[in-house]
Hints:
The protein is built from 29 helices and 36 strands. It has a seven-stranded mixed sheet with strand order 5-4-18-17-16-6-7, sandwiched between helices. A six-stranded mixed sheet has the order 24-26-25-28-23-27. Strands 30-31-29-34-33-32 form a six-stranded antiparallel sheet, sandwiched between helices. By secondary structure, the protein is an alpha/beta fold. Helix 2 (67-85) crosses helix 19 (463-473), helix 8 crosses helix 10 (240-247) and helix 27 packs across helix 29. It starts with a strand and ends with a helix. The longest helix has 19 residues, at 67-85. Strand 19 (438-441) and strand 20 form a beta hairpin. It is globular, with a radius of gyration of 27 Å. It is 31% helix and 19% strand. The structure holds ligand MGD (2 copies), iron/sulfur cluster (SF4) and molybdenum atom (MO). Residues 11, 126, 159-162, 165-166, 189-192, 194, 206, 208-209, 211, 280-282, 286, 318-319, 572, 574-575, 577, 579-581, 677 line the site of one ligand MGD.
Amino acid sequence: xxxxxxxxxxxxxxxxxxxxxxxxxxxxxxxxxxxxxxxxxxxxxxxxxxxxxxxxxxxxxxxxxxxxxxxxxxxxxxxxxxxxxxxxxxxxxxxxxxxxxxxxxxxxxxxxxxxxxxxxxxxxxxxxxxxxxxxxxxxxxxxxxxxxxxxxxxxxxxxxxxxxxxxxxxxxxxxxxxxxxxxxxxxxxxxxxxxxxxxxxxxxxxxxxxxxxxxxxxxxxxxxxxxxxxxxxxxxxxxxxxxxxxxxxxxxxxxxxxxxxxxxxxxxxxxxxxxxxxxxxxxxxxxxxxxxxxxxxxxxxxxxxxxxxxxxxxxxxxxxxxxxxxxxxxxxxxxxxxxxxxxxxxxxxxxxxxxxxxxxxxxxxxxxxxxxxxxxxxxxxxxxxxxxxxxxxxxxxxxxxxxxxxxxxxxxxxxxxxxxxxxxxxxxxxxxxxxxxxxxxxxxxxxxxxxxxxxxxxxxxxxxxxxxxxxxxxxxxxxxxxxxxxxxxxxxxxxxxxxxxxxxxxxxxxxxxxxxxxxxxxxxxxxxxxxxxxxxxxxxxxxxxxxxxxxxxxxxxxxxxxxxxxxxxxxxxxxxxxxxxxxxxxxxxxxxxxxxxxxxxxxxxxxxxxxxxxxxxxxxxxxxxxxxxxxxxxxxxxxxxxxxxxxxxxxxxxxxxxxxxxxxxxxxxxxxxxxxxxxxxxxxxxxxxxxxxxxxxxxxxxxxxxxxxxxxxxxxxxxxxxxxxxxxxxxxxxxxxxxxxxxxxxxxxxxxxxxxxxxxxxxxxxxxxxxxxxxxxxxxxxxxxxxxxxxxxxxxxxxxxxxxxxxxxxxxxxxxxxxxxxxxxxxxxxxxxxxxxxxxxxxxxxxxxxxxxxxxxxxxxxxxxxxxx
Length: 869
Ligand SMILES: Nc1nc2c(c(=O)[nH]1)N[C@H]1C(S)=C(S)[C@@H](COP(=O)(O)OP(=O)(O)OC[C@H]3O[C@@H](n4cnc5c(=O)[nH]c(N)nc54)[C@H](O)[C@@H]3O)O[C@H]1N2
Ligand SMILES: Nc1nc2c(c(=O)[nH]1)N[C@H]1C(S)=C(S)[C@@H](COP(=O)(O)OP(=O)(O)OC[C@H]3O[C@@H](n4cnc5c(=O)[nH]c(N)nc54)[C@H](O)[C@@H]3O)O[C@H]1N2
Ligand code: SF4
Ligand SMILES: [Mo]
């Protein structure tokens, strides 16, 4: 079986993947983003391409219709809305997970033909503050950094980035660089002590949103220490004086850090020219996200540390095509090819190129405003593509109501059941990763091909093809007469020559004449790729910014006043290592589901005491917007006064855990990006009458007051809790396990508060249910392994691991499927380093994503053992 070279569909590192039709994947040794490495999510891609739960045919009001009726309806309803209420009565809400070709066609249809800029993307929730910061400073949304800078830097500062979990292959690259050059220093600025902080020489547990103040302090020091690059700033930078003036007298207290910590940071940053400041959502997703970005860019511009090997600011992107979406103009205030919607010359040039009948001439609604307009009845037709806003948008319960309020709604997706898909009128089946073909751009401006290695299932079609078909049905036959993704790409590349001629950065016109075969074979390519000139290279080392006059701009920053948090705690949100967003793909992988099996709340020990919460209990987290229930995880890694919860769980995977139900829809005033990391919440104990753990061969649904479902090797597993003890444990167990048939064996010990039920048939175990008045402590992975076996029910109900089926614990190493208990045993047996664990178990020796957690386990187990030895 031949393997196809493609690119990973998850994070913005953009790793090259070799994939075969049987689902086996490995890293592409020739790809410059990863040189053969993959992380745990990339390694498990094969487990996510099954057709279970896939959307395979168009559906209107839940009924399969075939393409013609569905697309006629979409075209007709969008046309009718435009006719009756004007172009701005319709909207597209799209995604950084669309391919560039999909994005291009969507953007052309709405901005150039429907005549509205009401297209925004989930990148608004992700990169908008970086885009706004770049545009202010550079005059364009240009990312000057390259991954190779990590190997050359002497100091790497990670601000608001949990790189170890979110961009693991880049993290491993830094780990390797540090091993090769122990002089390389790493600073991690994050309120939480994350897995990333494991490699930090300095971890700064910054007060939430204290970043702008910290970088202002840095600018002040740069000036005080005489480190301003006078030549560079004189030739290439405007606004130095005002920015430095604003930075003087910065208040150290705003950072929440000690003087020693601040001074260590200032000394490291100032002590070498070769500094990379890499930043992500702890910077972008904030009411002052754009100020944070510009505070960082100010320091690099003032010192001329930009665009040169081993130094520069580096906004690391989240989604596989976050960059491509920005390039192609997916945001409501951008045009294709980094052209500006608000610039009449740019608009005119694009309109001429597209021969467009009705060009949008004003910015459209940004994501939060777009859903508000839906709620207000201003949007009559809405098309959501490749994103799940009912989960990922702030104030998510209101967003659910907003989608319901739109008279006609469409979603293009690859799966049937998502929180968003449950709300819409028309569902359109798109081809997914492995079936679709096109291009994506990663964080360092490398354009890679995603290629198909599987046939399109059922009636699924590529997103660009679906959108173009609607364009044709709306009457614009020639403009949307694309025969292939290669044809779309050629048109896009040709349009970029207009951008090049207008003096903009994004020019890939050198690719405009690629034949189908050359497009198919296109190797990873760094832009710009102008016609008849050298491609790739660096930006800004010698100035050449995109403001009129060619200079960059520094921005005077006034850090925000510290607002009292009020009675509650600050709710910080983000990601876990093995899940991707709303889990529609990673949730199918048994391996990935075993790392973090349920939603949780990270809380500092002192806050837990104040809230009256104990470890492994359940907490009700609430505020006037919403209420969720999460497992309590007490850890000193949390910052006092601030709790953290993952964003991944949905109404499909858990009963009450959509974290965005609690997040206010406040945004950065410049970028419109929501402050997804800054809700205010109060906590109380969830008064559980009982807690349960269940594992079943049948698919379970999150129906109890608390339930979280995960895929596991033998079927599905669930953590559940109820308020009142049920009258019949057997009925309760059958309902939770979704096993109405089969024989039941029941163990009840009311005095001990222990209730257990096994469902079996023909000697084979189908389901196990363990309940107790305290959080249940059964050996979970051992119980999972019993389903489908002929273990006697009573033995299975003992709930302890047997000698032949020892408890593995929660999965730590997803590549080799090694659990925490296995690792603890090996540490006790003498494996006292991460490499030693690799040698005896394999753990951590493939993708390396779990190495920080392995070190944590060694740190936790080894000192105790060694003291006893
Ligand atoms: N495993 C996994 N990887 C992913 C994704 C995924 O879903 N799962 N998604 C991808 C996407 S789209 C994105 S955008 C990226 C996101 O990648 P990251 O930005 O690295 O991830 P997050 O966990 O959202 O947030 C990063 C950190 O910001 C910290 N933070 C919160 N508030 C502040 C603050 O005020 N200041 C500072 N300095 N830090 C703060 C949080 O504690 C958190 O640890 O990950 C990508 N990679
Ligand atoms: N509280 C909080 N909220 C956040 C964040 C946070 O840190 N905290 N992070 C924000 C960020 S940075 C991001 S990027 C968003 C992500 O949030 P979303 O974009 O809402 O999350 P996904 O689960 O990636 O949604 C992708 C959808 O597209 C579908 N899909 C997959 N492949 C294809 C395809 O090829 N075609 C089509 N048509 N559909 C496909 C999937 O099944 C899924 O339903 O969440 C944001 N929300
Ligand atoms: S780091 Fe992991 S998730 Fe990101 S692109 Fe590479 S393999 Fe995919
Ligand atoms: Mo993102």
